[in-house]
Amino acid sequence: MTEEKEVAVENGQENKETKEVDSELESAIIRQVEYYFSDANLPRDKFLREQVKLDDGWVPLDVLTRFNRLAKLSTDTDLIANVLNNSTSGLLEVSEDNKKIRRNPELPIPEMNEERRKEMTARTIYAKGFPKEALLDDILKYFKQFEEVENVIMRKYLERSTKRRLFKGSVFATFKTKDQATKFMETKDLKYEETPLITFWQDEYLQQKQEEYQAKKDKRDKKHKDKEEKDDFKLPTGTVFHFSEGADTMKREDVKEALVKLGAEVAYIDFKVGDTEGWVRLAKENSAKEIAEKITDGKIKIGEKDVVFKILEGDEETEYLTKTVEEMVKRRKNQKNNSRQNKGKNKGGYKQGRKRRQDQNDDGPPSKVKADS
Fold first, then answer.
1. In total, how many domains does the chain have?
2. Eight-state DSSP code of residue 273
3. What separation in angstroms does the CA of 32 have from each of 102, 111, 247, 255?
4. Which of residues 74, 103, 132 is at a domain's end?
5. Which one of 65, 174, 271, 313 is CB 3.0 to 4.6 Å from 151, fit for a cystine?
6. In this predicted model, what pLDDT tens digit does every residue of 116-126 receive, in sequence order?
């Protein structure tokens, strides 16, 4: 092959590659502009709806080129107009001077009401498994292999350290029809490259997330409530004695009397008759040491026994007080529940009694059922 022919072949290849790039750019421009005027976007795009009202639906192309995604493709309004003239969807019209475009007047803009939201949700799916560095164009190319997708929303989150919105790796995709969405959802082994996709109907996904959110909220609320209840029962420290080696006939009153003689202010005695050991909680912060100094050899004679008293300190005291507070909270809850039940019974009894009185005050003789009641 001569050098001239080689050059000609190279040029031919270059022209072919350029043509393919132009074709890809043309498709991207048509797709992007038609999205702006689509049923999925236009009803909820406040700015564009306002523009549409200004000039019988016509919107200047130089206005559209301010939109980021179209601007990344091209800001050449002549090029964009020529490309849109090649669209076969029938959605858009280009003005005679190639300066403006509008949505086909025969295709009215659907009203974005609750009924339409439900209809769109019914043909919207959730898909997760896309790489977090993926671009919208990459994902649009992926969905191109399926039935027509009206809209793809990349789900993003705000990274606090950089204040940037980053892709989560999941999308909401709205198909043209419910049947097309169903066909996608029934496709087996959906993958993006080699990564399997996790898919749900949008409704199912949102319901699942709502339940997860509510469960977390309930857990937080319960934790907060439990903390408040425990704070209500915050007990002074340095106040707990454990006693042992008592007689099985020993009573709470015996233990309390012995400690009061030493000047103790007893708050509670955790002890059952028949046991030989128990716990005493004093009322004043750090008062146990003061009383302990008055106990000879750590023993107090109660009845015929020298009962051994030991101060609980550190982890031992913390564990005991924590358990005590939990039991106090539990008792309060039980009391509240019993109180509600009793109120319910009383209210029911009041209503029944009131009904009987009303029956007796009705004109005419009471019916047999009323009389029997």
1. 3
2. B
3. 14, 22, 90, 86
4. 103
5. 174
6. 888 899 999 99
By C-alpha distance, which of 122, 154, 125, 124 is closest to 138?
A: 154
| pLDDT reported for residue 91 | 92
Length of the chain: 373
The answer to the question of residue 222 being in a domain is no
CA dist., res. 8 & res. 25, Å (int): 25
Q: How far apart are CA 88 and CA 105, in angstroms?
A: 16
pTM of the model: 0.52
CA distance 309 to 329: 28
CA distance 181 to 38: 18
Q: Residue 183: which domain range?
A: 114-214
d(CA 113, CA 212): 28
Q: Are 55 and 95 in contact (CB under 8 A)?
A: no
Assess if residue 267 is contained within a domain.
yes
Do 208 and 268 lie in one domain? The reply is no
Single-letter residue type at 147: E
Distance of CA 50 to the CA centre of its chain: 34
Tell me: the pLDDT tens digits for 292-350?
999 999 999 999 999 999 999 999 999 999 898 888 888 888 887 777 777 666 655 55
CB within 8 Å of 82: residues ≥ 6 apart: 98
The reply to whether 135 and 90 lie within a common domain is: no
Q: Helix or strand or coil: residue 220? A: helix
Cα(70)–Cα(77) distance, rounded to whole angstroms? 11
Both structure tokens of 30 = 């048509």
Tokens of 25: 């750019």
In a domain, 373, yes or no: no
Burial class from Cβ neighbours inside 10 Å (0-12, 13-18, 19+) for residue 326 reads middle
